[in-house]
Amino acid sequence: MGASYNYDPAKIEGAGIDRMRLELGDTVFNPGKLTAALCDEEYAAIIKQHKRWKKAKFKCLEAILMRFAHQVDVNVDGLSYSFSQRVEFWKKLYDDTKKDVNVAVPIADPRALNGMSGGPPYFYEDMNTNPRGIGVKKEK
């Protein structure tokens, strides 16, 4: 089975090949094999492999850069095609996406918060209570 190259703007709302093509600027291909960054099957495999959209986008950009790393600019009888400009665009997008993908989200260890790690619990009942009663209205 050969590679396929399709883009349907009506399908960009879902997290699929068409949305990925739009976000990466890979929507014009004529003929697809020569001008498309990746074929539909490659996009589908990468998207399926990664749960997070940003990670899938990052991996698609990685694959695109690998594919075009060896391409050169072509000029035939006044008709030119600049692969280097496309690669510069994808490289910048790759660098920007890499920053987003590598952002770590701190996650607290529930065992430490509940005192199950061997030490006292981090939070405990009435931990904010003022023992001297300063600033607290006393009932009469």
UniProtKB/TrEMBL annotation:
Superkingdom of source: Bacteria
Name of the protein in question: Uncharacterized protein
Native species: Hominibacterium faecale
Taxonomic path: Bacteria, Bacillati, Bacillota, Clostridia, Peptostreptococcales
